[in-house]
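Whiteboard transcription, Tuesday session. T.W. wrote the C-alpha cells on the left side:
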C-alpha cells in the first residue's frame, strides 16, 4: 500500500500566499531580496569557479587554486565597493553619472589603441594592467550607460513627450559607446547595451513606433556583425544543430548539453564534473552554468534561477515603490542589464540561444564584470534603504540589536 501526503488545502495555500504577500510588502523586503541574492550568488560563484577551473588552473600554473584565488581577490575588492555604494546618497550617483560615462568612453578608446588593448578570443576588448590581470572597460560601460541615461531622462522628464528630447542626446551617446564596443568585436556586450537603451526608453514611456524604427537597423547591424566573422556565423549555424558539426563549431554547445544531461536531478557532486577535464571550453567563465548543472543537478540550476529571480523582483519593487524618478530609471536599467545578460548566458548554455560569450553575473569568473555588477547592486541597496519606511525600519533594527536584553532571575519560569 502506497502512502502519499494529502495535497495542501486551499485555506493553507491561500494562507501561505497571504504570508508571502505580507512579507514582500514590508519596507525592507526589496533591500533583503537584493542583498540576500547578491551574497548567495557571489558565494556560489566562488565555489563553482574553484570547482570548474581546478583542472585548467593546475595545468597552467601547477596549482588548482590559482584562478579561484584571483576571483576571490576581486570579491575582496568588490565587497567594500558594494558596501560604500550602498551608503551613498542618491545625489552622489547623479553627480557621478557624467564622469563615469566619460571615463568609460576613454577606456573603450584605449582598448583600440595598439600596444594598450589586448585581444582575447578574437575580440579586442581588454586592457593589460600588469601580470596576468586585465580589465574589460565594456563591463563598466554597462553601468555608465544606465547611470547617465537615468540622470539624463530625469533632467528632461518634462520634455519626454517630444521624441527629439526623448532620443537626443541619448541615442547618439549610446551609439558611440556601442560602436566602440563593436569595433573591439564584442557583439555579446553590445547586445546587452542595446537592451539597456531599449529598456530605458520603455521606462520613459516611448511609443511603440520608436522601437520599430530602432529595431530594424539594430537587427541589420547584428546580422552584419554575425556574417562579417566566420566564427560567429558558425556559432549561429551550430546553434540550430550542435551535432551537425560536432568536432567543430558545435563542440562547445554539445558538451554543454552533455554536462547538463549527466547532472540529473541532484548532480554528480561538487567537484565531480567530467566536462571540466578539457572537454568543455570556458567551463569557469561563460559556461559555468553547465558545470553547476552537472555537479549540482537540476536542483542547483533552479536555485540559481530563483536567486536571480529574487534579485530582479527586489529591483523591480524598488523601481515601483520609489517617488524618485532617477531611482526608478536606474533600478529599471539594472533590471534590464542583469536580466538580459542572465538570459543570454543561460540561453547559450542551454542551446536555446546562440552562444555570445557573455558571463553569468556574479557567478562566472571575471573581475571587471564582478566589480561593475557589485557596484551597481550596491547602488540598488542604497536606493532600497531610502524607500518609504525602510530607513526607519533599519534604524529600529539597529537600535534593537544593541538594546540590552532583560535578565530574568535564575530559576524563573515563563509561561
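and on the right, the sequence the group agreed on:
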Amino acid at each position: 500500500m502506497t502512502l502519499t501526503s494529502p495535497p495542501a488545502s486551499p485555506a493553507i495555500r491561500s494562507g501561505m500566499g497571504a504570508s508571502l504577500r505580507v512579507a514582500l510588502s514590508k519596507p525592507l523586503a526589496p533591500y533583503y531580496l537584493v542583498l540576500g541574492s547578491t551574497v548567495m550568488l557571489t558565494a556560489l560563484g566562488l565555489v563553482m569557479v574553484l570547482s570548474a577551473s581546478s583542472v585548467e588552473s593546475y595545468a597552467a600554473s601547477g596549482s588548482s587554486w590559482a584562478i579561484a584565488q584571483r576571483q576571490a581577490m576581486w570579491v575582496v575588492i568588490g565587497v567594500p565597493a558594494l558596501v560604500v555604494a550602498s551608503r551613498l546618497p542618491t545625489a552622489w550617483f547623479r553627480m557621478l553619472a557624467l564622469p563615469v560615462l566619460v571615463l568609460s568612453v576613454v577606456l573603450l578608446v584605449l582598448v583600440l589603441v595598439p600596444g594598450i588593448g589586448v585581444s582575447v578570443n578574437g575580440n579586442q576588448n581588454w586592457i593589460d594592467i600588469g601580470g596576468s590581470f586585465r580589465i574589460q572597460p565594456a563591463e563598466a560601460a554597462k553601468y555608465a550607460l544606465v547611470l547617465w541615461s537615468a540622470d539624463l531622462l530625469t533632467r528632461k522628464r518634462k520634455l519626454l513627450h517630444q521624441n527629439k528630447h526623448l532620443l537626443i542626446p541619448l541615442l547618439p551617446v549610446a551609439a558611440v559607446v556601442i560602436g566602440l564596443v563593436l569595433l573591439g568585436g564584442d557583439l555579446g556586450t553590445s547586445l546587452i547595451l542595446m537592451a539597456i537603451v531599449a529598456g530605458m526608453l520603455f521606462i520613459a514611456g516611448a511609443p511603440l513606433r520608436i522601437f520599430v524604427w530602432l529595431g530594424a537597423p539594430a537587427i541589420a547591424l547584428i546580422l552584419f556583425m554575425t556574417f562579417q566573422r566566420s566564427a560567429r556565423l558558425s556559432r549561429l549555424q551550430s546553434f540550430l544543430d550542435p551535432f551537425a558539426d560536432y568536432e567543430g563549431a558545435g563542440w562547445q554547445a554539445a558538451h554543454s548539453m552533455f554536462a547538463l544531461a549527466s547532472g540529473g536531478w541532484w548532480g554528480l557532486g561538487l567537484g565531480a564534473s567530467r566536462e571540466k577535464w578539457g572537454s568543455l571550453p570556458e567551463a569557469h567563465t561563460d559556461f559555468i552554468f553547465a558545470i553547476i548543472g552537472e555537479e549540482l543537478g537540476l536542483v542547483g540550476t533552479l536555485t540559481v534561477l530563483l536567486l536571480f529571480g529574487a534579485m530582479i523582483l527586489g529591483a523591480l519593487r524598488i523601481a515601483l515603490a520609489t517617488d524618485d524618478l532617477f531611482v526608478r530609471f536606474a533600478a529599471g536599467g539594472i533590471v534590464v542589464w542583469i536580466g538580459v545578460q542572465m538570459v543570454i548566458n543561460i540561453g547559450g548554455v542551454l542551446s536555446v540561444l546562440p552562444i555570445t560569450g557573455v558571463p553569468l553575473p556574479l557567478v562566472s569568473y571575471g573581475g571587471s564584470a564582478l566589480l561593475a555588477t557589485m557596484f551597481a547592486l550596491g547602488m540598488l541597496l542604497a536606493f532600497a534603504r531610502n524607500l518609504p519606511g525602510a530607513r526607519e525600519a533599519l534604524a529600529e533594527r539597529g537600535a534593537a540589536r544593541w538594546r540590552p536584553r532583560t535578565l530574568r532571575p535564575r530559576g524563573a519560569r515563563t509561561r
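Someone added at the bottom: The chain has one domain: 28-96+139-385.
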